[in-house]
């Protein structure tokens, strides 16, 4: 990777960062256009992408990258685009406007005992674990995507956090299952 770009981001050289920001903006917007991302969303994606690049420069990650700055930046942008498209797809799939007025989503009456215990247990997790497990299990993001979004050091950190969160969730579910069983005995 071009060391002078990384140095500019790391040191916060305002003039160089501004030049760098505008140098690759159109390439990112073009990539967003290929995937049908709106201009407003493309602007948001590029902002996020540039902030991620800055964070990676500050942490020193970019000094070991073998690709060019532009290639890496567009790779980050592509992951952000895919996340955006996944989120939009999920939102349109579960659009509450498509549900009839007398139908109920997650109504207490329609949940099984196991679903109630799981819902209660999931709510007891810390916010970080809930977000991480939602990204991994509900949104179906890969460890690589989660690593970039959460700005973890590497995928091993993501796997480790995910494993700990799943263990916590299992422990909470078992505790709540035991309470439920004792209460209903």
UniProtKB/TrEMBL annotation:
Keyword set includes Transcription: yes
Record flagged with keyword Transcription: yes
Keyword entries, A-Z: DNA-binding, Sigma factor, Transcription, Transcription regulation
- Alphabetical GO biological process terms: DNA-templated transcription initiation
- Domain of life according to the entry: Bacteria
An example of a GO molecular function for this protein is: sigma factor activity
Q: Which PANTHER family match?
A: RNA POLYMERASE ECF-TYPE SIGMA FACTO, RNA POLYMERASE SIGMA FACTOR HI_1459-RELATED
Q: Which family does it belong to?
A: Belongs to the sigma-70 factor family. ECF subfamily.
Protein name according to UniProt: RNA polymerase sigma factor, sigma-70 family
Species of the source: Flagellimonas taeanensis
The record lists the lineage as: Bacteria, Pseudomonadati, Bacteroidota, Flavobacteriia, Flavobacteriales
